[in-house]
Amino acid sequence: MKERLNLLKADPKSFEAMLGLEKYLADSGLDKKLFELIKTRASQINGCAYCINMHTRDALKIGESAQRLFLLNAWRESDLFSVKEKAVLMLTEAMTLIAGNPVSDEIYNTAKEHLSDKEIASVIMAIVAINGWNRIAITLQTPLD
User: Fold this and answer.
1) Where are the domains of the chain?
2) Which CATH superfamily is domain 12-140 in?
3) Helix (H), strand (E), coil (C) string for 56-106
């Protein structure tokens, strides 16, 4: 697969806009391991090899276990994830697969039971950001590094 375009080189301001969202998320107080689980799970769903590669490595660097990463696509069947993490992963999947299927009240309310309003806002923006990055990397055929 040959990279179609390097977004940073082609239009640095567009790349900087995405990085602005990443800066907000880094400063939001969202748990870093939870943030990496969101990014990895959405990337798995979207089939973004570049982002799966990046975020599993990033997760391992901050102490996430390889076992949890190996089982992330089967989180429902695992007792390795907390109730809060499961609520976030459920919301991640629903938002990532939103086309023609809105996020249900059940999924949103489950997240609301385990997250503060600020956390929900950060989680939603994290899901939006990674889905944007996935679409950029997949469209531009960004090679693994």
Assistant:
1) 12-140
2) AhpD-like (1.20.1290.10)
3) HHHHHHCCCCHHHHHCHHHHHHCCCCCHHHHHHHHHHHHHHCCCCCCCCHH
Q: Which of 63, 42, 23 is nearest to 133 (CA)?
A: 42
CA 121, CA 46: separation in Å to the nearest integer? 22
pLDDT for the residue 2 = 86
| φ, ψ for residue 98, nearest 5 deg | -70, -20
Alpha carbons within 13 angstroms on the beta-carbon side of residue 74 total: 7
Q: What average pLDDT score do residues 100-112 get?
A: 96
Please tell me the pTM assigned to this model. 0.94
